[in-house]
């Protein structure tokens, strides 16, 4: 850097101290102000600390710089880099604005002093504090007089009671918990006494490892402010009390002298000349109830020191009762003791009478409103301010508190909100009153319907306003919805019922015709549901139905129709099918959706589905024709093995029509005497006992011929006609058995097949006993043959039935054993005496060793349970010989006799079963 420039710069009469440094930070030159304060030596001593600042300054601009020393303990300056025209670094300049001589005081100190602020500078390593001339005329350092301990120099002048809080604030700042330290405390004044100051400061220098070296700050005299705060609090209290008791009679009570003071207004209000000298005289003026209430309030006030308000009654003889409102406000001293009690009394007699009238009218109106569930409100047109009646709050389920129109409308559905706002706009524009049905939800989630009547009200002197009446019509709406639900929806599953499904399907068919689209109806019947419902009860059955409906529904598109037809039957209508085969794909999806078993507690339930499919065409073009076709296809799916689907065909329809024909023909068949019984003997294997007889039902239809029991009995069970038919069979069998017995024919018992439907019929067991008694036939010689599925259903009705039968000695046998749901628990639980081996095992036991083992196992099982074992369907002597070897007790079959007419069976019994029965006597099965 040019020496001439340096010399010229340093000789310039600047008030600031200036030092020129080379590029390494060593001082090159200094002006007189800098040399006077020893600034070059300080720069040289702290050269390493300035290195980071020089790097910042080298990038351009001014960098603030602080160095220890000077009259106030530090130099506050600015470091700047000097570059040549090519941008090369030449040197640095350090300038300190106007450093002052010791104790001279800078312009900033003067300004702070006149503003009421003092300065302090705390050297933490030496624990020395230098203060400005705020408290005395000479700045001083407190290091000599300070007691031992870190921070003691700064705290030496602080009041002992305030030192813990100040020390805590200092420690927090020194730990770096805040950018600025601040505290209010009392400090000893040089003239004596204590004054309040506001102390603030911050750490300005730290070591390399972050330890604080130096802290500077200000203290401000706030003594006057503290006094003003105390005065302001007192004035605010008096102001509040004066505002509250304005224009009313006032009083006060001195707890020390125990004397009252009453204002002239209060004396005139109460009609007395002077204030009572004691509280007791004042109490004597009041009614007994008011006197008790005031005494309690007085004691609470003296104990708690809290204001009190109460209404009192003051009897005035012939003038009636004067109603007063009393306020009491305690004034407490600094020590918390009562200094004075201020009060006010207001005559509220007229207000009391008005309030009583208003309460009576309001109560009457509320009763009328509550009875009719009608609430009302007023809405100012301009401001939308709103007032509600109590019933309106009750209808909306809200507590009685101020509410805005927007808050109220927020409860309503969007459609109701829009309708209400639109109605307000139309009426405000001159429209006629309107009535709306609106819906909202209470905070509890309860849905409410209201009928709203809105009209505009104009009155002189009052703002234009809407008058709105709300009537709760929730019950009416719910009743209508309930009627709609009952009429069109299934209550169990929530699906459309047959009526609604018919309407929806008709619309879908019409739409498909117009668009030339394909449409299919699927008839779904749940396989195995009836058994589950009968076994585990209707509650489990309902749960299964709902679960099955939900799974089926999830497998359909939104455009498809789905409803419950009846019982365990559902209907699906598929729209817009690209190909008829797509209906089969959907059917497979529906069947697969039911593949996963359903858990209900410890019970695992499993159902399948048989699905019939009918396509819309010219011959099936309405709901009924599609339904008939889909129903026929469904029965075809059941015959095909269940849990599958079938498209409609004419053969399937023929089978359905055959079923309907038989069902119709069964009705009245008893009255037309179309039924008869054939009898087949059961021979004892030991040949030392008379045979038993099984009664077999036959149905001969005039002009048509015999109908197989395997065909008509399932249909009779499904339509319920089996109960009447079964009673006829029991009656006829008992009558015939009694006739043979009276004729001297010897036989063991007569057996009758009983359907599971009959067992579920209440009173069945009692009717069996009555039939036996009516024909003089012992119940012990009437055997009832049941299927295994009937024993699976362990219900209260079934247990009662078996109890009655067992009590009267009626024996039970299980027919076709091994082909149904065998369960040893039920065999052991119910009074079963015989097992009948199904004819399918008997016919296969000679050709299949496994089948022979099954028959042997059944014999062993029956004997182990204390039962007799009967083999049916025996046709050869080889079958008979094997069964005898296996231990079978009775044998039944064509080997001995076909089913016979009553006359032929009587002949069979007369000859002991040895005679050959002529072919013309054989009753066809």
Protein model, in words:
This protein is of the alpha+beta class and 925 residues long. It contains 33 helices and 37 strands. The strands form seven sheets. The chain has an eight-stranded mixed β-barrel. A six-stranded antiparallel β-sheet has the order 8-7-6-11-10-9, sandwiched between helices. The termini are far apart.
Silhouette: elongated
- Helix content bin: 40-55%
Over the alpha carbons, how many angstroms does the gyration radius reach? 55 Å
Tell me the major beta sheet: 8 strands, mixed, barrel
Distance between the termini: 138 Å
Count of DSSP strands: 37
Mean pLDDT: 82
Strand order of the largest sheet: 29-30-32-33-34-35-36-37
Tell me the layout of helices and strands.
Blueprint: H1 3-11, E1 17-21, E2 27-30, H2 32-36, H3 39-45, H4 51-58, E3 63-68, E4 74-83, E5 89-96, H5 107-114, E6 117-123, E7 128-131, E8 140-141, H6 152-155, H7 163-174, E9 181-188, E10 194-206, E11 212-221, H8 223-244, E12 249-254, E13 259-262, H9 264-270, H10 279-284, H11 288-304, E14 308-315, E15 321-332, E16 338-347, H12 349-372, E17 374-380, E18 386-388, H13 390-396, H14 405-409, H15 414-428, E19 434-441, E20 447-457, E21 465-472, H16 474-488, H17 498-515, E22 518-527, H18 529-536, H19 538-554, E23 561-566, E24 569-577, H20 581-593, E25 598-600, E26 603-605, E27 608-615, H21 623-639, E28 645-647, H22 650-666, E29 675-684, E30 692-701, E31 705-707, H23 709-719, H24 722-742, E32 750-753, H25 756-760, H26 764-774, E33 782-786, H27 788-792, H28 796-807, E34 812-817, H29 824-829, E35 832-837, H30 839-844, H31 849-864, E36 868-872, H32 877-886, E37 890-892, H33 902-910
Parallel strand pairs: 27-28, 30-32, 32-33, 33-34, 34-35, 35-36, 36-37
Antiparallel strand pairs: 1-2, 1-5, 3-4, 4-5, 6-7, 6-11, 7-8, 9-10, 10-11, 12-13, 12-16, 14-15, 15-16, 17-18, 17-21, 19-20, 20-21, 22-24, 22-27, 23-24, 25-26, 29-30, 29-37, 30-31
Helix pairs in contact: 18-19, 21-22, 22-23, 24-26, 26-28
